[in-house]
Amino acid sequence: MTTAAVFGCTGAVGSQILATLLAVDAFSSVKTISRRLPNAQSPKLQALEEGDITKWGGMISSLSPKPSVVFNAVGTTRATAGGVQNQWKIDHDMCIENAKAAKKAGVKTYVFISSGGTRGVFSPFAYVPYSRMKVGVEDAIKELGFEHAIILRPGMILGREKPKNAFLENVFANLNKLGQGVQDKLAADQTIIGRAAVASARIAEEGKAPSNYWVVEQPDIIKFGRDEWKE
């Protein structure tokens, strides 16, 4: 059975990754490290509270049993962080240090929740600081040479308890009125994204990932997290 660790476990997608891990039999032990403890409870959950995020990565090697899979769903906003510089320290610097620490601790599979639209000449978001943060982390993870590195690039995240942009999220949430296929191209509920992250890790652990460095785009997020999801 597999042990997993989750970072960002109290956020929108991270909380869904945690809930999914606790619900499936494929993961026998789940660890979390966070500034505040998650609401989830389970006999197979060990939740650690650490207010200093710079210590998170170093704690991976002390977990017992050691995780073979790490999920990184850490993410903040410029407003919450108090500016782009502080956001960069969390969404970029800390995430890279986390991946390096996971590699050093012998983690086999590293799953990072990135974002769609962060790359490409024609993407209107490719050159904003948020995209540069995500791209920087993706590139660093690729260079570390994990046995399996999985990058999820979801579109707009729906279903947040506390929306980051209520107007935009409401617009995307109503796209299904034009047809579910329209919404599926651009957005997904946080539960679907969380399940897709876990499903991708299971595929990798079973040796069925298409490559050692695997980018899971929006269509496959819908496929793995909803259409083909099985607990």
Would you mind describing this structure in some detail?
This protein is of the alpha/beta class and 231 residues long. The chain has 9 helices and 9 strands. The strands form 2 sheets. The chain has a 7-stranded parallel beta sheet with strand order 3-2-1-4-5-6-9, with helices on both faces. α5 links the parallel β5 (109-113) and β6 (148-153). α4 runs parallel beside α5 (129-144) and α8 (190-205) crosses α9. The chain is globular, with a radius of gyration of 17 Å. The model has no long low-confidence stretch (mean pLDDT 94).
Give descriptors for this structure.
two-stranded parallel sheet; 9 helices; 7-stranded parallel beta sheet; about 40% helix; alpha/beta; about 230 residues; globular
Share of helix, binned: 40-55%
Distance between the termini: 15 Å
- Low-pLDDT parts are none
Number of helices: 9
- Based on the structure, what is the oligomeric state of the protein chains? single chain
The biggest beta sheet, please? 7 strands, parallel
H/E order of the elements? EHEEHEHHEHEEHHEHEH
Strand content: 15-25%
Order of strands, widest sheet = 3-2-1-4-5-6-9
Estimated structural class: alpha/beta
Rounded to an integer in angstroms, the radius of gyration calculated over CA atoms is 17 Å
**Beta strand count:** 9
Q: Label the overall shape.
A: globular
- Could you tell me the mean pLDDT? 94
